[in-house]
Automatic annotation (TrEMBL):
<keyword id="KW-1133">Transmembrane helix</keyword>
<dbReference type="InterPro" id="IPR010432">
    <property type="entry name" value="RDD"/>
</dbReference>
<dbReference type="GO" id="GO:0005886">
    <property type="term" value="C:plasma membrane"/>
</dbReference>
<dbReference type="Pfam" id="PF06271">
    <property type="entry name" value="RDD"/>
</dbReference>
<keyword id="KW-0812">Transmembrane</keyword>
<dbReference type="InterPro" id="IPR051791">
    <property type="entry name" value="Pra-immunoreactive"/>
</dbReference>
<keyword id="KW-0472">Membrane</keyword>
<feature type="transmembrane region" description="Helical">
    <location>
        <begin position="52"/>
        <end position="70"/>
    </location>
</feature>
<keyword id="KW-1003">Cell membrane</keyword>
<protein>
    <submittedName>
        <fullName>RDD family protein</fullName>
    </submittedName>
</protein>
<feature type="domain" description="RDD">
    <location>
        <begin position="8"/>
        <end position="133"/>
    </location>
</feature>
<feature type="transmembrane region" description="Helical">
    <location>
        <begin position="101"/>
        <end position="120"/>
    </location>
</feature>
<feature type="transmembrane region" description="Helical">
    <location>
        <begin position="12"/>
        <end position="32"/>
    </location>
</feature>
Length: 140
């Protein structure tokens, strides 16, 4: 297994994240704007939106074999380092503990460290990948 070829780098992961967010936020934003009569993204700042997006980030990859919408579009997926199937506990540790909680406690510093880990580590694993025993595979 050659890490440099089978592991998704920072650019692909970033693109997948941006696409995923846009594909989810834009349609919901249109509906919210039609309902309220005011175009605004303020609804994305609340606990409700962040909780729903966290649930999406935890549940969809388990159901969809490691993909979310953005990852499916750029053909990368989350996989377990031990080869087993992803489960809800894995994704909870990856998304809630590894990204949200550690990011919150470190005031975002862990996110910056994770970017450097993805860019410079041969295995392309970030803090949230280590928390869950995962990596992001380049399926292309």
């Amino acid at each position: 297994m050659g890490f440099s070829l089978d592991r998704a780098g920072f650019g692909m992961r970033l693109l997948a994240g941006v696409l995923d967010t846009l594909i989810i936020v834009i349609p919901i934003g249109v509906v919210v704007s039609l309902y309220t009569g005011t175009p605004s993204l303020n609804w994305t700042q609340g606990v409700t939106w962040n909780s729903l997006y966290l649930l999406y980030s935890i549940i969809l990859p388990v159901i969809w074999g490691g993909f979310n919408i953005g990852k499916r579009l750029v053909n990368i997926r989350i996989k377990k380092t031990n080869g087993k199937e992803l489960n809800l506990a894995d994704m909870f540790f990856r998304e809630f503990i590894g990204k949200f909680l550690i990011g919150y406690v470190t005031l975002g510093l862990s996110t910056v460290v994770s970017v450097f880990m993805i860019v410079f580590r041969k295995d392309k694993r970030a803090i949230h990948d280590f928390a869950a025993g995962t990596f992001v595979s380049n399926e292309g």
